[in-house]
Amino acid sequence: MQITQIVGQLPPAIGGVGDYCYQLWRHWPDSTGQWTFLVTESAEASQHHWPEVQIQPFGTTETDLLFALEKVDARLVVLQYVGYAFHPGGYPLWLSRALAHWKSLRSDHRLLVMFHELAPDKPIWQRAFWTRRYAQKVVDELLELADGWITSCPGYFLQLAKRSNRGLLVPVGANILPDRPVDFERPWPLAQGKKLRLVIFGLALTRLWSLGRHAALLKKLCAQGWVESITLTGQGQLPERYAGQLRQLQTEIAPPALWQEKYDLEAADLSPILSAQDLGFVGNECELLTKSGSFAALSAHGVLTVATVKNPGLYLAQAGLREAVLLNDRKLTALLEQLSDPAVIAAKQRSLRQFYEKQLRWQAIVGGWQQQIQRLQPGDD
């Protein structure tokens, strides 16, 4: 089965969507020679890095995409959609026009859209606030065109499902996988009179966002004397203009001796660091949590994750998620009580193992994709 995927960029470029495509291919049975990617950036470098698939460039115009689709004789197209990958303002109006034209050419043309992002909700002082209606227009048009769609978190799924019943919720998998068996129910340090090892993992600005969001809780944990270390790790150094903000947060939260910073490590070096942690902190709210490769990576290594929640009604729609995470809902007393209760932690660990095995393992993710693609596979004219 030939699958043509449209994406902004692929490895070796750093980016969550490109890495997602690579991991999906790695875990897909019998995919060699059957996947073609159309990319807007660095096609030659990606082809060298990933010779097992065909990678072709195209320009970000309606004409260029139509030409590229015709060149590879695309019948089943998967759009890995993030607005900013195809337009600097995040609203590629040309993209839905091109795909509508392509679908009209043959009755067996099928389109599957993976919505990695939707139109963003930004404050009024940001440009994206004023252009949101255009970004939403693209999402609406793609949803109308799609023969099927996938998204990765309940916050997005419930929005899309109001308009189309052709979708499936398939979480993002781990971008760093453990190289050895993981004990999801390992002893909890506080129950043994030991201290916690905390980690904030992700891209540079995501780490800063996570640190700010959980600053009060982290400060409280340190004041309780419960913290052995706080590790910042992941890809990319923080831009210099944000360095002062990071240092200020670190100073407010904990003494210098507790901080460790380990960036841009290879997966083989990063995995043991994640495995050694007890508690992870992410910036995503729970209703958006399963769109995060960092959350999936922490889960794959058996690390309980602390997240905030904005709309409980949204994340409750995803079976098992509430039981598998710890919520920082600003009621620090309740969360501290949970962390100090071995029975609560043991239940969370068991739930995390079940949630990971059923929803976050790449084999489960591939199964969801295959389910959607099987429904859409075009026949021969």
Short description:
The protein has 381 residues and is an alpha/beta fold.
Structural descriptors:
6-stranded parallel β-sheet, Rossmann fold, 2 domains, 13 strands, 381 residues, 7-stranded parallel β-sheet, alpha/beta
What does this structure look like?
The chain is α/β, with parallel strands linked by helices and 381 residues long. The chain folds into two domains: 3-172 and 363-376, Glycogen Phosphorylase B (Rossmann fold), CATH 3.40.50.2000; 189-360, Rossmann fold (3-Layer(aba) Sandwich), CATH 3.40.50.2000. The chain contains 16 helices and 13 strands. Helix 3 (62-71) packs parallel to helix 4, helix 4 (93-105) packs parallel to helix 5 and helix 15 (342-360) runs parallel beside helix 16 (362-376).
Write the layout of secondary structure elements.
Elements: E1 3-7, H1 16-26, E2 35-39, H2 43-49, E3 54-57, H3 62-71, E4 76-81, H4 93-105, E5 110-115, H5 127-145, E6 148-151, H6 154-161, E7 167-169, E8 196-201, H7 204-213, H8 215-223, E9 227-234, H9 243-253, E10 259-263, H10 267-275, E11 279-285, H11 293-300, E12 304-308, H12 312-315, H13 321-324, E13 326-327, H14 332-339, H15 342-360, H16 362-376
Parallel strand pairs: 1-2, 1-4, 2-3, 4-5, 5-6, 6-7, 8-9, 8-11, 9-10, 11-12, 12-13
